[in-house]
Prior knowledge:
Blueprint: H1 3-9, E1 24-28, E2 43-44, E3 49-51, E4 54-65, E5 69-86, H2 92-97, H3 100-103, E6 111-118, E7 123-138, E8 146-153, E9 158-161
Antiparallel strand pairs: 1-2, 1-6, 3-5, 4-5, 5-8, 6-7, 7-8, 7-9
Amino acid sequence: xxxxxxxxxxxxxxxxxxxxxxxxxxxxxxxxxxxxxxxxxxxxxxxxxxxxxxxxxxxxxxxxxxxxxxxxxxxxxxxxxxxxxxxxxxxxxxxxxxxxxxxxxxxxxxxxxxxxxxxxxxxxxxxxxxxxxxxxxxxxxxxxxxxxxxxxxxxxxxxxxxxxxx
Length: 166
């Protein structure tokens, strides 16, 4: 499902107060060459997905100075997603991740643009992710097939605001 199609199905989320994890939207450019015209044409990450596992992983450097004492300086931060769910054939995101080109690819062939934002405020971030497939439908004979992918940001994400598209 494309992001623009998914967004058309949503009732507006509250843009203030508490919210749940499903109010956050993740979409990835799953076109063959990674050249989707707009983020609205990215694949929505949500079909049979239980958790997108969004985290920020900051790095820091600690120093101790004679006069000032201990000091911590933040040196970077990386966005990661630990996506888990049940394998669903015909979902654009899962089919893309489970293709041999992505499962066994390296370098730029497994990097794609993404957007991650709150469905109520329509604000969040965009950037580039490296796709690391960990489970592509494994499971015991009668168990649901597991799907697990890790996405790690490449460089610094930018501010993003979703705008509806036809």
